[in-house]
């Protein structure tokens, strides 16, 4: 069983006997010790998509999935092709299927991802918790701050924007924590 | 045949839960002619809001609402009841497993609402009305009160604003109401009410009122703030009925009053300090300036709610009034000294009063929460 709070992109839960893939999950505190998870789900049998809300402590039946290591091979329009690193099989996913990690997926990335299979079908991909990306654009340091506490916006090669430390410059490699939407972790060593 | 509704209310630590659910239940009965059972797990809290109620009765009728005891040991004592057409679990309280089981096995399953907390945050409109499919296959719908048309709106009885406006322009009605509660303010004094949680900076605010040029008569219904008031006054005991003067400030402690009386009390006052959810909404319908003492949450999640409301509420106020109001609300909720912010706010009294009335009328243009729930049910069937 999984609780509402544990739902994250890539989780598959069973509802009314059908497997549903969590494509997006947003956690919010709603009120006194109460929290909710808004999810975007896709029925893996029919392809039907819907939005559903759960209380953080709702109990849901999760589906045990196969997981394999995979890397991104190439991107063609909205189609993302991943390759199984052990048997070199190619699998395709639509942008929507990996909506939650899409901001950090870019051509040429070498991260070893976790490919999630339901009945031998690739349904989603999870990125490693920490990834390294290059800053494509950011303004110069405004205050000369070196503490890492002052933040400023920066853009990655695929256009994703995130807040980084003030001392980060164009071309710097940064570490990103991919959980909960992705956030700057520090300058890559 | 009347549609039947069950509302479940778990009283956690205050009166907001029971206050909101009783208002909702009464409105469903009075205006939508529905049959309503209100299940409450703490009838003592209910009896304080509804003085005629019996805290020991398993079942009683109050204002047309069938009020039932929600026993702690539900599964041991519960006898199966006829399932209603609609079930409301208020503020994410958990329905008894036996009851859910009965819903699951029913030929005609009820519509199941989770009535959520009030928030002005953006995400609320994206979640309002969405279903939640349980592992049993039952569906419940999340219903969010709120301040925009993309939410469920606020509890507001039919004719409330007209009734309030008529009361406020009728000095005899006001005088008569205040006399009934033994409130006899000085003719030149402004009237204020204080219903809040504990506040470390309260003394600085009372100092401001005591040292002001204008007299203030501060009404304090019994509640959690009383200890701080007592400390400031330096008295050994502070009970309902007590009246103490300090320079320009008179403080009067009131007994806990029923909902209708509390509404009229808010209408009588020039400024109200309110807390939680129920009194917060009622103070907005009073059309008077207010301070909201928000319920403190883990991880400081309440600050985002406070600021989200302020952002909506302050639209149209001058920049200086916005700054002063923000400082006062932040100081109050942060337990900080109030002197600077309050003195700044005092410069905008007329603007804030006009704004409070305007905000009230704008909010009243929206569908009320009870009607929105009923309409959702009608669409659902």
UniProtKB/TrEMBL annotation, chain A:
Q: Where is the Translation elongation factor P/YeiP central domain?
A: 67-123
Q: What does this protein do?
A: Involved in peptide bond synthesis. Stimulates efficient translation and peptide-bond synthesis on native or reconstituted 70S ribosomes in vitro. Probably functions indirectly by altering the affinity of the ribosome for aminoacyl-tRNA, thus increasing their reactivity as acceptors for peptidyl transferase.
- Spell out the HAMAP family in the cross-references: EF_P
Q: Pathway it acts in? A: Protein biosynthesis; polypeptide chain elongation
Q: Which UniProt keywords apply?
A: Cytoplasm, Elongation factor, Protein biosynthesis
Give the domain of life: Bacteria
In the UniProt record, which is one GO cellular component term?
cytosol
Per its record, how is this protein called by name?
Elongation factor P
Q: Which gene encodes it?
A: efp
Q: Which NCBIfam families did the record assign?
A: PRK00529.1 (NF001810)
Q: What PANTHER family does the entry give?
A: ELONGATION FACTOR P, ELONGATION FACTOR P (EF-P) FAMILY PROTEIN
Any idea where this protein resides?
Cytoplasm
Q: Which family does it belong to?
A: Belongs to the elongation factor P family.
Question: What residue stretches are annotated with the Elongation factor P C-terminal domain?
Answer: 131-187
Protein biosynthesis keyword on record: yes
Query: What Pfam families does the record point to?
Result: EFP, EFP_N, Elong-fact-P_C
């Amino acid at each position: 069983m999984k609780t509402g709070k544990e739902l994250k992109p890539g989780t598959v839960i069973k509802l009314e006997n059908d497997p549903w893939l969590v494509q997006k999950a947003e956690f919010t505190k709603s009120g006194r010790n109460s929290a909710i998870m808004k999810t975007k789900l896709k029925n893996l049998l029919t392809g039907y998509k819907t939005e559903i809300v759960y209380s953080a402590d709702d109990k849901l039946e999760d589906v045990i999935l196969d997981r394999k290591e995979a890397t991104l091979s190439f991107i063609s329009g909205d189609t993302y092709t991943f390759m199984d690193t052990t048997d070199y099989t190619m699998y395709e996913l639509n942008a929507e299927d990996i909506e939650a990690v899409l901001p950090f997926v870019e051509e040429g990335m070498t991260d070893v991802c976790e490919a999630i299979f339901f009945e031998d079908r690739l349904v989603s991909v999870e990125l490693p918790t920490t990834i390294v990306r290059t800053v494509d654009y950011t303004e110069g340091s405004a205050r000369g701050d070196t503490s890492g506490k002052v933040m400023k916006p920066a853009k990655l090669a695929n256009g994703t924007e995130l807040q980084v430390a003030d001392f980060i410059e164009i071309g710097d490699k940064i570490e990103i924590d991919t959980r909960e939407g992705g956030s700057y972790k520090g300058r890559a060593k | 045949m009347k549609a039947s509704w069950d509302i479940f209310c778990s009283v956690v630590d205050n009166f907001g839960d029971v206050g909101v659910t009783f208002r909702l239940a009464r409105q469903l009965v009075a205006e939508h002619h529905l049959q309503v059972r209100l299940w409450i797990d703490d009838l003592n809290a209910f009896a304080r809001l509804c003085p005629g109620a019996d805290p020991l009765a398993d079942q009683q009728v109050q204002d047309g609402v069938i009020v039932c005891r929600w026993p702690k040991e539900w599964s041991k004592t519960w006898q199966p009841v006829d399932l209603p057409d609609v079930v409301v679990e208020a503020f994410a309280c958990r329905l008894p497993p036996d009851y859910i089981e009965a819903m699951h096995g029913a030929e005609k399953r009820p519509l199941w609402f989770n009535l959520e907390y009030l928030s002005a945050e953006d995400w609320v409109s994206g979640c309002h009305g969405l279903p939640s499919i349980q592992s049993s296959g039952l569906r419940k719908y999340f219903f969010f009160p709120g301040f925009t048309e993309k939410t469920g709106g606020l509890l507001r009885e039919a004719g409330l604003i007209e009734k309030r406006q008529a009361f406020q322009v009728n000095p005899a009605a006001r005088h008569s109401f205040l006399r009934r509660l033994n409130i006899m303010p000085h003719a030149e004094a402004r009237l204020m009410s204080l219903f809040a949680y504990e506040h470390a900076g309260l003394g600085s605010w009372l100092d401001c009122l005591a040292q002001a040029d204008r007299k203030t008569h501060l009404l304090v219904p019994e509640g959690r703030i009383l200890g701080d008031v007592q400390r400031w006054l330096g008295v050994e005991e502070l009970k309902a009925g007590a009246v103490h003067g300090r320079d320009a400030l008179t403080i009067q402690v009131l007994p806990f009053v029923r909902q209708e009386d509390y509404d009229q009390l808010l209408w009588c006052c020039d400024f109200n300090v309110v807390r939680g959810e129920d009194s917060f909404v009622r103070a907005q319908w009073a059309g008077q300036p207010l301070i909201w003492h928000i319920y403190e949450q883990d991880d400081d999640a309440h600050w985002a709610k406070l600021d989200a409301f302020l952002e909506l509420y302050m639209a149209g106020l001058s920049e200086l009034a916005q700054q002063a109001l923000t400082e006062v609300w932040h100081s109050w909720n942060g337990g900080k000294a109030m002197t600077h912010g309050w003195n700044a706010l005092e410069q905008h009294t007329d603007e804030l009063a006009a704004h409070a009335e305007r905000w009230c009328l704008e909010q009243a243009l929206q569908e009320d929460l009870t009607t929105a729930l009923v309409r959702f049910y009608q669409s659902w069937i």
